[in-house]
Structures are given as structure tokens and as C-alpha cells.
């Protein structure tokens, strides 16, 4: 039997195809029947355009319903979907084109659909679980961006596990304000909704007024931490707005403990934080029913084996399981380097695991600071700083230092006296971990998913100690 992911998703669409899939801001709707029709017509056109199974089909466009039809149509046609961040410049797109050699790059999905045959492709192209469904270029902050190859089986396994873990049912309505060029909006959010045949409040981006209005129609919201800090910054956001939502989920970047606490105080709800990456979709999640702990990313999903490498309490998180990708596109050596002999993927995230299985992340391995020969985990210093008066958020980095190799530096949103804050850190942390300098800023540089771009901070302040 074919294991095309499209067939799994479509098998769960509501029997009554007139039921809504997309609830748009202008009050109009797009039904499941229209989604199926659109995806089938895109697939028919892809086949007519000469796309063969395994060919890459790239999409670079603003978020739209037609964009989802292109994604599903590509799966149905047996193609490998390649979403590209709509913010990429033409030079960046050129790199991905040369590397992935897509048969097609679609930049206007509505026109692509408009010119598609009237008849949808009847049958999906047969795929096995190990055939590729998508290539996701990692946001790679250093070196060449790598294409993570995800198979139909990888995506199906993760979607089914999440649907179960987060208690989805056809009664849910998902608020979808995430971009669809990244795993979070494209796989995590979309697949959970499609597996339930659920409607989605479909927002082109996070905009306060639309999100507040959408919350009253939805039962689940998935967001990056920035969504939650933006909601909290809005004094008009109250417990009543959140009352209709059964589950708020956060991921793609660390959720500050202060945000978790403030959100609970404002709404009475505890955000469920989970951890994932392009190479494995979702890896761990706080429980739906058990204790959701601020600062922890929860437990490995069923089927995911997780261990801490290096033989210490804190080390690189290694994972194995059905959603772990098959490798980096055309980089067999890089792929081999990132897997252990027994098949565990080295995530590059540093963390620890409690005896009961709960996981805590302390940062990226490449952000580890080595100062005077000692390891400093930025997260540990950030947690101390974030507790101090005047500090809203901090990002701790290592900068080249003549004596220490790297000097610990904190870039802080907030205000205060540098010497006093450093002294306060020294009462709570060993001297080698305390920042040598604190720089105050209004904003931290972030990428589209809300991740602080420490590489930019390191570049910007590279000469601080010279
Ligand atoms: P990406 O492949 O762009 O989705 O980025 C994946 C990376 O985001 C992971 O390797 C983590 O470093 C980070 N990340 C995702 N979720 C979390 C989380 N809940 N807490 C901390 N870091 C996270």
C-alpha cells in the first residue's frame, strides 16, 4: 500500500467535505472539499509540467491557502516539497536552486493553481515510507545552509504522535498565525489540524487584533515565544480572550520562565512548551495532562529515544526515532558526522535529563563559551540575569578575549548599572561564569521564528575586548 503522506492526511478529512478548513480574516471560508480539489489540480499540473516522483518543487511566496494546496499537491504528485523563507533574497534563493535543483520554483501559487487543469489528479503517486516528502533548509547560522531530508514516514509518524499527545480531535479549531516555510507552521500545526479535519483560523501573520479576535473561535493556539510576549505586552489581552482555548503551545525557541509565569497569571493557563528542529520535527513535549514545568521542554515523544552524550550530566542531546530525518541533501559526509555509530542524531543542542525523563535545554553546542578553559553554558547565566531587577531578557555570548580565549558578555534588554548587575551575578555564579561586560540594548536580533541570532551579536561586538 502506498505510504504517501497526502493519502494519510486526506483519509482523515471530514466525510462532509463542505466543512471548513480555512477560516479567513475577511469572514470567508475554504472548505475541505476545496482544499482537496485544489491540491489535486496542483498535482495534475505538476505532472503535466513534467514533474516526476522525487523531483523537487520549491515554493517561495507569502503565506496563503494556495500555498498549502501547492504543498499538498506536491506530496500527491510524489514530488519533494522545498519551502523557502519568503524573506530570502534572490542571491539566497540562487544558492538553494543550485543546491536542490528543483524542477520548479513557484512564486505565485494562486496563478499556478489558476492555470491548472480542471480535473484533479485522481490517484496520489505511490510512495514508500522512506521516500522523501520534503527538504527543509536549516536556518544554519554558520557555514552553508543544509537541506534536511524528511521522508513521508518521518512526517506521518510525527504528525500522528503529536495528534495523540496533544489530545486533538475533530472538535478542535487551530489558530494558525505561523509562517508555512518552516516546520512549525508547515508540519506541526498544519498536520495536527488536517488529521482532525479541523478548521483553522488562518492568519497571514501574527497581528494583535486578528489574533485576539481569532482566539474566541479557536481551541488550540501554536506559537513561537514572541507570540506570547506580544500578547502579554497588549494590555487589552485578558483572561476572557484566552477562555475558549484549551491548549496554548510554544516552541522553536526557548520560552522565558517569566513569560510562562506572566501568561499563567494573566489567563490562568499554563503554556505547553515543546522542543523540535527541522531534522526531527518535534522531539519532546511537556505533557497535556501532567505537570508543565517552566524552563523544561518536557519528555521525549513516544517512540523517540533520547540520551545525553559525553558521559556528563550536561551534554549534547542525541536522538533516535521514527521522525529523525534521513540525512542532509547531497552531504553524505556531513550526515555521517552528525550520527553516532548506533544511529543517534547529534542535535547540537546541549541539555540534561532528569531521572524521570524530563529534558532541559541549556543552549546550542556552538554557543558554549569556553572562558579560561572552563565551560560556561549561556542559559545558566541568562537565567540568573533574567531574575535581576531591570533585566527583561538577556543573551549571553562569548567574545574573543586575550587572556581568557573567550570572555563572557551579556547583551541585555532593560536597564541598570553594569557594575551592580555583574556583582549580583557573582553572588550567584562562580566568578568565571559571571559576565565580564553587560551591554544594554532595546532589542535583540531575532530570526523569523523568534530565535535570538547570537551569531549576529558575536559579529557586532567582536572587538569588545580588543
Ligand atoms: P529549526 O531547525 O529552525 O526549527 O531550529 C531548531 C532549534 O531551535 C533547536 O535545535 C533548538 O536549538 C531550538 N529550539 C526549538 N524549540 C526549542 C525550545 N522549546 N527551547 C529551546 N530551544 C528550542
Short summary:
The protein has 15 helices and 24 strands.
The average pLDDT score comes to 96
Strand order of the largest sheet: 2-1-9-8-10-11-12-13-14
Q: Which segments are poorly predicted (pLDDT under 50) over 5 or more consecutive residues? A: none
* Class from helix and strand fractions: alpha/beta
Overall number of structural domains: 2
The CATH topology annotation of the largest domain reads as: Rossmann fold
Helix content: 25-40%
What ligand molecules are bound, each kind once? adenosine monophosphate
Strand content: 15-25%
What is the CATH architecture term of the largest domain? 3-Layer(aba) Sandwich
Overall number of strands: 24
User: Number of helical runs?
Assistant: 15
Radius of gyration: 23 Å
Just give the CATH class of the largest domain: Alpha Beta
Q: Which superfamily, in CATH terms, is the homologous superfamily of the largest domain?
A: ANL, N-terminal domain
Report the sheet with the most strands, covering strand number, pairing sense and barrel closure: 9 strands, mixed
Beginning-to-end CA distance, first to last residue? 64 Å
Shape: globular
Amino acid at each position: 500500500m502506498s505510504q504517501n503522506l497526502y493519502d494519510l492526511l486526506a483519509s482523515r478529512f471530514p466525510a462532509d467535505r463542505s466543512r471548513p478548513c480555512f477560516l479567513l480574516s475577511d469572514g470567508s471560508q475554504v472548505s475541505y472539499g476545496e482544499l482537496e480539489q485544489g491540491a489535486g489540480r496542483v498535482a495534475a499540473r505538476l505532472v503535466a509540467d513534467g514533474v516526476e516522483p522525487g523531483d523537487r518543487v520549491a515554493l517561495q511566496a507569502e503565506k496563503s491557502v494556495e500555498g498549502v494546496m501547492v504543498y499538498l499537491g506536491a506530496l500527491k504528485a510524489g514530488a519533494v516539497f522545498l519551502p523557502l523563507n519568503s524573506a530570502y533574497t534572490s542571491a539566497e534563493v540562487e544558492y538553494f536552486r543550485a543546491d536542490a535543483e528543483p524542477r520548479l520554483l513557484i512564486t505565485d501559487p494562486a496563478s499556478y493553481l489558476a492555470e491548472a487543469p480542471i480535473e484533479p489528479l485522481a490517484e496520489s503517486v505511490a510512495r514508500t515510507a522512506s521516500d522523501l516528502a520534503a527538504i527543509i533548509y536549516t536556518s544554519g547560522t554558520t557555514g552553508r545552509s543544509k537541506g534536511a531530508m524528511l521522508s513521508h514516514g518521518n512526517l506521518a509518524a510525527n504528525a500522528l504522535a503529536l495528534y495523540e499527545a496533544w489530545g486533538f480531535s475533530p472538535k478542535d479549531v487551530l489558530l494558525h498565525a505561523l509562517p508555512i516555510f518552516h516546520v512549525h507552521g508547515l508540519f506541526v500545526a498544519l498536520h495536527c489540524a488536517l488529521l482532525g479535519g479541523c478548521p483553522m483560523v488562518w492568519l497571514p501573520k501574527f497581528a494583535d487584533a486578528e489574533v485576539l479576535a481569532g482566539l474566541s473561535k479557536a481551541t488550540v493556539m501554536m506559537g513561537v515565544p514572541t507570540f506570547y510576549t506580544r500578547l502579554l505586552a497588549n494590555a487589552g489581552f485578558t483572561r476572557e480572550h484566552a477562555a475558549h482555548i484549551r491548549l496554548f503551545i510554544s516552541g522553536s525557541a526557548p520560552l522565558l520562565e517569566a513569560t510562562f509565569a506572566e501568561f499563567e497569571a494573566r489567563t490562568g493557563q499554563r503554556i505547553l512548551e515543546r522542543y523540535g528542529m527541522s531534522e526531527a520535527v518535534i522531539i519532546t513535549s511537556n505533557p497535556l495532562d501532567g505537570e508543565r514545568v517552566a524552563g523544561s521542554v518536557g519528555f521525549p515523544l513516544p517512540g523517540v529515544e533520547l540520551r545525553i552524550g559525553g558521559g556528563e550530566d550536561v551534554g549534547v542531546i542525541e536522538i533516535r526515532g521514527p521522525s529523525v530525518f534521513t540525512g542532509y541533501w547531497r552531504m553524505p559526509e556531513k550526515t555521517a558526522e552528525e550520527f553516532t555509530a548506533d544511529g543517534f542524531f547529534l542535535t547540537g543542542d546541549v541539555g540534561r535529563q532528569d531521572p524521570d525523563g524530563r529534558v532541559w535545554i541549556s543552549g546550542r553546542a556552538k554557543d558554549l563559551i569556553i572562558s579560561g578553559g572552563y565551560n560556561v553554558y549561556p542559559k545558566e547565566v541568562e537565567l540568573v540575569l533574567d531574575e535581576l531587577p531591570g533585566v527583561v531578557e538577556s543573551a549571553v555570548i562569548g567574545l574573543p578575549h586575550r587572556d581568557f580565549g573567550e570572555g563572557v558578555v551579556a547583551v541585555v534588554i532593560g536597564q541598570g548599572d553594569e557594575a551592580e548587575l555583574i556583582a549580583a551575578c557573582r553572588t550567584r555564579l562562580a566568578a568565571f561564569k559571571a559576565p565580564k561586560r553587560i551591554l544594554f540594548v532595546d532589542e535583540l536580533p531575532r530570526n523569523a521564528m523568534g530565535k535570538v541570532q547570537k551569531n549576529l551579536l558575536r559579529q557586532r561586538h567582536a572587538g569588545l575586548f580588543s
